[in-house]
Amino acid sequence: MVENRYIVDILILLLVSVIAVPLSHRLRLGSVLGYLLAGVVVGPHGFGLISETESVHVLAELGVVFLLFTIGLEMTLNRLKSIGLPV
Predict the structure, then answer these.
(1) How many structural domains comprise the chain?
(2) What is the crossing angle of helices 2-26 and 54-74, to 10°?
(3) pTM over 0.70
(4) Are the C-beta atoms of residues 70 and 48 closer than 8 Å to each other?
(5) Which DSSP string corresponds to 11-71?
(6) Tens-digit pLDDT profile for residues 9-57
């Protein structure tokens, strides 16, 4: 039964992400902010749709890896040059 709860948690997160990302695009924000918004909404400090377990922490760490990867894909060399020294 525990495995089913993990699948339900992942499906809830994916469903909210499918809604949050187009909403963030409509507001002219990046998709990364949409994913962050989805995580806040379903997390224990939002509506609490996902229970806080050890597997959620593992998924959160994996999410950080994907977040950094997505930021790296969206960042261009010209943009880094325009930002300058603070980077």
Answers:
(1) 1
(2) 30
(3) no
(4) no
(5) HHHHHHHHHHHHHHHHTT--HHHHHHHHHHHHSTTTT--S---HHHHHHHHHHHHHHHHHH
(6) 888 888 999 999 999 999 999 888 998 888 888 887 888 888 766 767 7
